[in-house]
Amino acid sequence: MSEFNHQSTMAQVESTYPYARALLHSKFHVGGCASCGFEPQETISQVAQKHGKDADAMIEILNNGFRDMQESEIDALSLSQILATFKDEVLLVDVRESWEFDLCKISGNAILLNEKSMPVIFEKGVQAKEVVVYCHHGVRSLNAALYLRQNGLPHARSLKGGIDNYSKTVDPSIPRY
Predict the structure, then answer these.
(1) Which of 61, 76, 96, 97 could tie 166 with a disulfide, CB 3.0–4.6 Å?
(2) What is the separation of C-alpha 162 from the centre of its chain, rounded to a whole number of angstroms?
(3) How far from 133 is each of 92, 129, 149, 167, CA to CA, in Å?
(4) What per-residue string of b and e applies to 96-129 under the rule 16 or more CB within 10 Å gives b?
(5) Distance between alpha carbon 44 and the CA centroid of its chain, in Å?
(6) Which residues are catalytic?
(7) What is the DSSP string of 95-156?
(8) Pairing between strand 156-159 and 111-112?
């Protein structure tokens, strides 16, 4: 799907853009609770009308969010080149569980995201040339990168395919699990 439009169903929207529901809820109070919910077969226009919202504004927000999601990913080879060139200026943010972080990590100055490290990540992220977030397969990290982008680190990106893909394509010494 290239762009969402009035006839796009919510099932199409959510399958193409997994973060659509959270975005719609934060911007329009649509889709996040029983009183503002929608059905998968409803179109954007139907949902907007049902909740008294502006369908054009919803479509614009969804299309902008989807484009931002696509722009916020970096592939493993590009990351390896950036690390080779700017290693000390790259902040790696690991959003996996602590046991996963202990098992393996991308070499560099990776910080495990948790409540205590959040202020450090924002402080270092503002100064970093690159902020790259990673997880196991690239799903959790994409969500985290989008959050960071919306909250003060617009240059944050997610490692497409996660550390698993990085291990397969760049550094096979990183254990796969």
Answers:
(1) 76
(2) 12
(3) 6, 13, 11, 15
(4) beeebbeebbbeeebbbbeeeeeeebeebbeebe
(5) 23
(6) 135
(7) -S-HHHHHH---SSS-EE-STTTHHHHHHHHHH-SEEEEE-SSSHHHHHHHHHHHHTT-TTE
(8) unpaired
Nearest to 59 by CA among 109, 9, 125, 100: 9
CA distance 53 to 153: 29
CATH of domain 73-169: 3.40.250.10
Q: Can you give the pLDDT at residue 1? A: 60
Evaluate the CA torsion angle 4, 73, 128, 144 in order and state its sign: positive
What pLDDT digit, counting tens, does each position of 35-72 carry? Answer: 999 999 999 999 999 999 999 999 999 999 898 888 89
Which residues partner with 112 through β-bridges? 94
Angle, nearest 10°, between helix axes 55-71 and 139-150?
A: 110
* Torsion, Cα of 10, 26, 45, 16 (10° steps): -30
| Closest-CA residue to 111 (of 130, 89, 134, 127) | 134
